[in-house]
Specification:
Blueprint (H helix, E strand, L loop, with lengths): L3 H22 L9 H26 L3 H11 L4 H4 L3 H25 L1 H11 L14 H18 L3 H19 L6 H7 L6 H5 L6 H4 L9 H5 L29 H6 L5
Length: 264
């Protein structure tokens, strides 16, 4: 797809910059680690993830968009069978792909060996815009394979896939941001999407709170499947972020993050 890289990078850079500025101007919680140190580790992991993803695309001979074109050319998937109007098809594809991500997230919490990978994301003891990009490279590979399987099953249009990925990345940065939204705005947005206050609960050290508010984008999935939690037990200001067993660990270091899945 022409200009695909630009379509991905421009919103990414703009949203990251906007959220970083808002975090500086309207912080939700004080951070107990230097942002420069955390960002060095988290962004280094993002760079490594990008290299790994590009390697996988080369190995598979296709990107997600190329796969979507290939599936469309062969007429595979459920959506082409419905013969819906183009706009309805695009919206339906985005909603269903978001549902796939929701259940993928829940499975990564429930299956022990998958949790070993996903805990890299949860070990961050502070949340800010960079936390939304912090995932172990092996989790990135598995997520990519799951997404490719979903594209074959759904037959989502290429433009819908690209739009979904841009939205998902942007929302991940938004709802991990350390930004204080007006309470009325937060309450209104929660009917549609996961806000920073809503998703922060998911990063609590309490297991029952970690296993809630899984959504990265649409909030309806948590409400519908019974995993939604309105408030943290200790309150937004006093809740502890991260994993209880790693509160004293160097969670901001790249090497530590990469080795975490193999630690006891």
């Amino acid at each position: 797809m022409e200009h695909e890289l630009l379509i991905r990078l421009l919103p990414f850079a703009c949203i990251f910059a906007i959220m970083a500025i808002l975090e500086y101007r309207f912080p939700r919680r004080p951070l107990d680690q230097a942002k420069s140190t955390r960002w060095l580790g988290n962004i280094s992991l993002v760079v490594l993830d990008t290299i790994v993803a590009r390697f996988m695309f080369t190995l598979l001979g296709a990107t997600t968009i190329a796969m979507a074109w290939w599936v469309q050319d062969h007429g595979w998937g459920l959506l082409p069978l419905l013969h819906l109007p183009t706009l309805v098809t695009v919206i339906t594809a985005i909603v269903l792909l978001d549902l796939v991500v929701y259940w993928q997230h829940r499975v990564f919490h429930r299956v022990p060996w998958l949790w070993r990978l996903h805990q890299v994301h949860h070990a961050d003891r502070n949340l800010d815009v960079s936390s939304g990009l912090r995932f172990h490279p092996l989790e990135i590979i598995l997520s990519l394979l799951i997404k490719l399987a979903a594209l074959i099953l759904l037959g989502a249009p290429p433009w819908a896939v690209l739009l979904f990925e841009v939205i998902l990345n942007g929302m991940a940065m938004f709802n991990h941001a350390n930004v204080k939204l007006p309470l009325r705005l937060d309450a209104l947005l929660r009917y549609l999407v996961m806000t920073p206050d809503a998703h922060r609960i998911h990063h609590s050290v309490l297991v029952e709170e970690t296993n809630s508010n899984y959504g990265f984008n649409i909030s309806a999935w948590d409400r519908f499947f019974g995993s939604y939690r309105q408030h943290p037990q200790a309150g937004q200001d006093d809740m502890t972020i991260g994993l209880p067993e790693y509160q004293q660990a160097p969670t901001e270091r790249l090497g530590w993050m990469l080795l975490l899945p193999w630690k006891h």
